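Morning - magnesium ion inputs below, output right after.
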Amino acid sequence: MSKLQSLRGFNDVLPAQSALFRRVFATAADVASRYGYGELRLPLLEATTLFKRAVGEVTDVIEKEMYSFDDRDGVSVSLRPELTAGTVRAGIEHGLLHNQQQRFWYAGPAFRHERPQAGRYRQFHQVGVEAYGMAGPDIDAEVIAFSHRFLTALGIGGLKLEINSLGGAEARVNYRAALINYLSRFEAELDEDSKRRLHTNPLRVLDSKVPRTKEIVADAPQLADYLETESRAHFDGWRQALEDLGIAYEVSPQLVRGLDYYTRGVFEWTTTELGSQGTVLAGGRYDNLVSQLGGSPSPAVGWASGVERLVLLLEKQQSQAAADAPQVYFCTMGEAAERQARIVAEDLRNRLPQLRLVLNAGGGKLKSQLGRAEKSGAGLLLVLGESELAEGAVQVKSAIQSATAHQQASGERVIFAALADFLATRLV
Ligand code: ATP
Ligand code: MG
């Protein structure tokens, strides 16, 4: 029989890493509530047409990366490759967008059939925000301030904020023509993907990671020279607000977002620590999507970040990654002590809500229990044997030494009634 394994690019997250995932989600939830963003929990599976209409037919995501299949009713459905399309769909469906302002955030898995590598997976997680009904640069600045606070609260350093403006429809039409005109002169030298995109989605060529294409792109005409007056004013207002807030940024003329629906301001927080998976958070304005999906027109801006990439950075940058290690391991010897210890442990958990305590289970000699305690990472040991039981007390020992050293050294005896208060002073 062949060995059962997880699918390529679909990861198990084990307890040591789960703590970091939880920290990312908890930080997002906390910052969201401080800015007044409400949480959306959306389906993982949606009609394929939603993504085709939202993301755009000639994008990598739709052409090559979607998990699409016909369900048992013959309906084409897809695992969501991102959460913005679902957010707009839900907003329209529940009447939340028409003539209203909304601030939403979300967290959850997304799926793309990509080549798995560090920081790029087939199931990954996104945390993101979306704001509707606000057209001015003030809200663009707000979502950046939110992202800045989120990344800072996580303690992730060394990130760079890059921004650009894609302009509105008119700028894009004119720019597209100029870009095709320029790139056509180098058509033979472009990589295969870029050749194909040259006429379907030329802006995507700017995003190419192929060295020769990148060289050609470096001298291409720049969108900034094609912005309409209002788009330019919007861009200036956004930049002014970032400067007011002291959030450093760089204007990157080549920055275009991977998905089709962006208009005007786009941005990315990038790192150089994750190889070519350098974008940890990305977003922008997408004023046309709501109407494109059948709602009445509503301006929109948002961002999404890759949780796995944030976790990789946390692991790299913070050697003391927040672990879930218990603080206390409780050893028992003999059946009577075991019964008493169960009661004492529950009592401690009642009295000390923050306490992380593991009660030994499955018996074992003291030596093997001490071995388990060491492996658990707990900093304090409680030992309840027959002699302690007779005194109505528990032996408390601190600091993890070798199991044998512990067996010999004896700790402080603390009576049951005083144990909670005693531990409270010893736990950090
Ligand atoms: P990339 O250029 O890295 O492929 P993208 O432009 O396709 O990213 P978006 O659609 O903007 O990405 O998604 C927002 C964020 O989600 C990205 O900035 C990245 O951090 C994360 N992300 C995207 N695809 C993956 C993936 N396959 N695995 C892990 N994280 C991902
Ligand atoms: Mg991608």
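Note: DSSP finds 16 helices and 16 strands in the chain.

O.
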